[in-house]
Amino acid sequence: MQAHRIGAAEAADTLVESREALTDLCNRLSRSPAVALDTEFHSERRFWPELFLVQLADTTGAWLVDPLAVRDLSPLRALISDPAVVKVMHSSRNDIAILRKYLSCEFTGVFDTQLAAAFLGYGEQCSLYNLLQDVCGIRARKAFCLSDWSRRPLAPEQIEYALDDVRHLHGLHSKLSEQLARKGRSSWYELEAASLTEPGAYEVNLPEMYRRARSAGKLKKSGLPVLWALVKWREERAMEMDRPRAHIATDSMLARLATMSPTTADSLDRLRGLPSGFQARWGAEVLAVVRDALDSPPSDVPEIPVRRPDGGASARADILRIYLKQKAHQLKIAPSLLLPRDFLEKLAALPRTAAVDCLRQGCLAGWRMEVLGDELEALLTGRMALVMGSGPAGGLKFIRTR
After folding, report:
1. How buried is 12 (Cβ within 10 angstroms: 0-12 exposed, 13-18 middle, 19+ buried)?
2. How far is CA 57 from CA 25, 68, 86, 170, in A?
3. Contact, 348 vs 313, CB < 8 A?
4. Quick one: which of 111, 241, 258, 371 is 20 to 30 A from 224 by CA?
5. How far apart are CA 387 and CA 258, in angstroms?
6. Of the candidates 257, 277, 276, 259, the residue with the CA atom closest to the CA atom of residue 268
7. Rg (Cα) of the chain, in Å, rounded?
8. Which tens digits make up the pLDDT trace of 164-198?
9. pTM of the predicted model as reported, rounded to 2 decimal places
10. What is the three-class DSSP state of 15?
11. Which of 336, 323, 325, 370 is nearest to 115 (CA)?
């Protein structure tokens, strides 16, 4: 089933290019139990992504809101924050992040079709194109995902592509909801989807950026305060200039700067791989940041847990991964959704008693504890073992020993 071609008259009715028209549309959509929502944006040249299109649909039609023409998108606030209206979206986090920034409001009532699909065996990162084809038998357009959305007027083909992103979401929402209910996984999905609307999920995580920059180079402990100061400096400059962080300095560049900790222009100039013009533009600031960090090391440097070498931890992690892969296959659910990698590694790194205590104290909560808790505890305490055998699992299976 192909999406129909849109004519000039229909395109005129579809495009929303004034605040008054947007207000009318939002009033109309507010009476719907669910609204499909998507955005088109560019994130290559700015610190904050640039929004160029907002797509909306109810069960009777679909519309494209042009932020370049409307400018004031505030009528969308009430719709987005209304818990009585389900916002049906696909891979929603980036769309939520950009609309939160533009509208200064919080989302409620989001149904993410990609997340729902991960609970139903369609894969964790299933594209909307593939999901529509697999679930609804619809072949949507996908040729314009990399087109330039900043150019006006929009080409008819771009309009058709953008409308396809929302016009089929209601049917997909209905079918996925039915499948979740039939498999008894609606509550699983709802618990996981709650994080989509948590404000903290969209805040800048500087400690995580610091850890990522640290992993980009080999730093001694003495260089960590300098790296932390440089990460904070880069964030301030990137936000101030509205440019991507890498436009100021890459993670590897920050790691090299922290390793050498230059305090003079000459020592900075000797740093290998320094981008052309970097010293002229940022040299004085970088040197000042380094000197300050060396003279008065910041007291808020994020801690990075030091894991002592443990050969057993690697083996335990391998066994847990095999168990997780087989369990995910059995349940038809994405392995990384079933048990996040960082939690798996945490369990593997802990001694047996501490790992069991971690489970019993609620570190694995909600639907995951319901599905995995008993078997994970049995595996960690030796009451379940991995044995060689025959069959479709590659000759490996888990059995209860007692």
Report:
1. exposed
2. 10, 20, 12, 8
3. yes
4. 241
5. 48
6. 257
7. 25
8. 999 999 999 999 999 999 999 999 999 999 999 99
9. 0.86
10. strand
11. 336
